[in-house]
Amino acid sequence: MTTTAKPERRVYYNNDDCPVRNVVAQIGDKWSMLILFALVDGTERFNALKSRVEGISQRMLTQTLRDLEREGYVNRTVYPEVPVKVEYCLTEMGRDLVKPLYQLVTWADQHQDDIRQARKAYDERS
Amino acid sequence: MTTTAKPERRVYYNNDDCPVRNVVAQIGDKWSMLILFALVDGTERFNALKSRVEGISQRMLTQTLRDLEREGYVNRTVYPEVPVKVEYCLTEMGRDLVKPLYQLVTWADQHQDDIRQARKAYDERS
DNA sequence: CGGAATCCAACATGATACTG
DNA sequence: CAGTATCATGTTGGATTCCG
Per the UniProt record, which residue ranges are transmembrane (chains A, B) (predicted)? Predict the structure, then answer.
């Protein structure tokens, strides 16, 4: 008979080429999801976004928007008026990404009590 | 008429009580998803996990497993033999969480080329 | 208005050595 | 075997100031 040992399968690869890691690492940061959801309703200007994404600093909003733009999730349009106007909106890919993210949101909403309980139980044990 | 301005809706709330932020922040770290997926096939011992999750240090494996246990995603069982044996497996909630995560994995797989192209285009522009 | 540049504190992670 | 403790380093994000 052949071996019954589990094949030593490596988990979904851990390197920077891993597409999943790329996506999750990006949207897993402190602000990306909030910005994406802030853009679901439509186009927004920089300062409007800053208002809607509560607590974000100008620095992080700029930086995260640049990252999201580079990944292809967000479009940036500059209107060379004075003072300048800049609008952001989701790309088609961005709108598509939001779908699986909503699944996660839904899951998190449904399980928040379970998680709270699990934490409480864990903390009381130790 | 009433105002036609967009209602100034705050995005999904940005604080530590936000269930979504809790979930995404946890699984968005460097190792959590890899560990969860490594446990999908069934129970694994500590060092077996360490082998399967390529590149993880003992320190981060321990720490991330503790976090996942505290959230209620992972079960930890100690067999007080000598030397000690410790087994990890997904909880019911953990197995359930993996489902929406797979949606994200699938999405990421399907769009990896688009993302690569978007990055290339972005980098060439600037 | 929408940034960029700089500085700095906090945190995350890796390497290494030690242990019940 | 499955950790813990300690140290070193890199990364993140906030505050502030300046700019076209």
Answer: none
**pLDDT tens by residue, A52-81:** 999 999 999 999 999 999 999 999 999 999
A6 neighbourhood in chain B, CB within 8 Å: 41
Nearest residue of chain A to residue B76 (CA atoms)? A122
Would the Cβ of B55 be found within 7 angstroms of any atom in strand C? yes
CA angle A96, A98, A102 (to 5 degrees): 130
> pTM to 2 decimals?
0.90
Nearest CB partner across the interface for B24, out of A9, A28, A55 = A28
The DSSP result for chain B, as a single string, is ----SPP-PPPS--STT-HHHHHHHHHTSSSHHHHHHHTTTS-EEHHHHHHHSTT--HHHHHHHHHHHHHHTSEEEEEE--SS-EEEEEE-HHHHHHHHHHHHHHHHHHHHHHHHHHHHHHHHHH-
Structure tokens at B2: 């009433």
Q: Cβ contact (<8 Å) for A72 and B24?
A: no
Chain segment B84-123, per-residue pLDDT in tens: 999 999 999 999 999 999 999 999 999 999 999 999 999 9
Contact A27, A33 (CB under 8 A): yes
